[in-house]
Amino acid sequence: MTTRREFFVESGFAAAVLAGWAASSAAADERDPAPPPGSRGRVITPDGITLAPREVDGAKVFHLVAEPVRHTFTPGLVGECWGYNGRVHGPTLEATEGDRVRIFVTNRLEEPTSVHWHGIHLPCGMDGVSGLTQRPIEPGETFRYEFTLHQHGTFMYHSHFDEMTQMALGLMGLFVVHPRAAEESPPDRDYAYMLSEWSIRPGTRRPDPNEMTDFDVLTFNAKVFPGSTPMVARKGERVRIRIGNLSAMSHHPIHLHGNSFQVVATDGGTVPLSARWPETTVLVPVGSTRTIELVADYPGDWAMHCHMTHHTMTQMGHGIPNLAGVDPSVFDEALARVVPDLVAGSTRAGASPATAVAPENSVAMLGTAGPHGIINMGGMFTVLKVRERLEEGTPVGWYEMPPGTQAEPATDDERRALGLPD
User: Fold this and answer.
1) How far apart are CA 3 and CA 269, in angstroms?
2) Segment 191-201, tens digit of pLDDT
């Protein structure tokens, strides 16, 4: 079998990576922003949904169905995954501290499963650890979990049967419990994200649960940039961002540009006011949640991404030869001897990027068209769009920099005045 490194060299995928910058997806200003908050105190899961409960005999009743799901990570990259209710990841569950919840779980997989309610205080028999606290849910069976919520915060749910495999295929979701008492400073926008990592080799569709080190698809809410939907906020609004990490192996330092924030809660509880301090990066360890809050004081398009630099790349950025310092002309000549049609159709030859060759079901290493050229990011990356004014439900375009506020080439007179070299 040809390795990824051999494929890169033999097929000239470097040219396809360059072409993919312009062709990978629609630019962010062509997609709708995250929907407006329906009511203060409710959560928005960008690129996800919230599962509405039914009220039955004083309990909030939810129904989760574990089943195979064909999931689009970004245009051009589809995975044969497992999820809940036809989604990867599963829908966000929302309830209020003090609620009685009754959750039915139906197994439509070809193997047993169970569901663990991660971080939630509940009776031991409802904890969902197959073999320890319950027998597994066999294919075709439906189990009932029922408990009262004694805490508030951001929690998660996930499979606890062969979880290395089942979580690697997508069986996870967010569980948000709102406080019973009214908050003194509730957020105007309340966003929730699940962090995850996948191994999906170019040309394949099934995530590899055996991978331990080289994850090549890194996601916010199971989406790869530029497929991720941006957050939006009006200037001056209080924004809450809940982040849960159920990656297989990686902690993620999530960095927000242009704004500082405070960590206000973990899955263990609320952080007291006296224990908070300003940050621009929050480390979210595996199996943990962190909740941050900020006031959106600065208009602009602000990046939010994992600061592990390889986590903002996708697929063909992994396991390739070191090309730093390569003379492009020499490289192109060598490439042309192997695949002349590819070089002739590459963007460096001035042709349409649609003519470049790439393996089936793969996306470029990084990059998509932005307002000022290529945004050299991919993977675990999204944008917070802060505006003076917003028309809810209307797509938010790229931010227009006010005069004098954007980096630009220095003039000859400026350089000469400072004695800077040409």
Assistant:
1) 46
2) 999 999 999 98
User: Which domains are delineated in the chain?
Assistant: 30-309 (2.60.40.420)
For 212, half-sphere exposure in the C-beta direction (CA atoms, 13 angstrom radius) is 0
- C-alpha to C-alpha distance for 117 and 174, rounded to whole angstroms: 10
Percent of the chain with pLDDT over 90: 68
Q: Are strands 238-245 and 288-295 parallel, antiparallel or unpaired?
A: antiparallel
DSSP classification of residue 29: G
CA distance 160 to 336: 51
- 386 three-state secondary structure: strand
**What is the number of H-type helices and E-type strands within the chain?**
6, 24
Contacts for 391 with CB less than 8 Å, ≥ 6 apart: none
For 305, counting Cβ atoms within 10 Å of its Cβ (0-12 exposed, 13-18 middle, 19+ buried), the class is buried
pTM of the full predicted structure? 0.85
CA distance 314 to 200: 10
Distance CA 305, CA 323 (A): 25
* pLDDT at residue 351 is higher than 70: no
Model pLDDT, residue 369: 87
Question: Tens of pLDDT along 373-384?
Answer: 988 888 999 999
Q: Which of 248, 222, 240, 244 is nearest to 290 (CA)?
A: 244
* Residue 177, number of CB atoms within 10 A of its CB: 22
Which DSSP category does 210 fall into?
A: T
Segment 326-349, tens digit of pLDDT = 776 676 677 677 666 655 544 443
| Ramachandran bin of 65, using left for φ above 0, alpha for ψ from -120 to 50, beta for the remaining angles | beta
